[in-house]
Write a structure and sequence with these properties.
Elements lengths: L1 E4 L6 E9 L5 H5 L3 H5 L4 E8 L9 E4 L1
Antiparallel strand pairs: 1-2, 1-4, 2-3
Length: 64
């Protein structure tokens, strides 16, 4: 599945390649307790097809 997200005019295109569940490695970034804080949540791994500017508020739209 391909997704478009980012700033209009320079949006990024991503290709979802799988699910990404939290693992104990997250403690390396967030520190002690990081894994427990995000357990039960997850996201996706994706390959960048077209680079672009992405903001935290950017909408994510599937490309049909």
């Amino acid at each position: 599945m391909r997704l478009r997200t980012g700033v209009s005019g320079s949006a990024a295109v991503l290709e979802a390649s799988g699910e990404c569940h939290p693992c104990s490695r997250i403690e390396e970034t967030f520190g002690a307790g990081g894994y427990n804080a995000v357990r039960g949540f997850g996201g996706i791994t994706a390959r960048v097809i077209e680079g672009g500017a992405i903001l935290l508020s950017s909408a994510v739209t599937p490309i049909v």
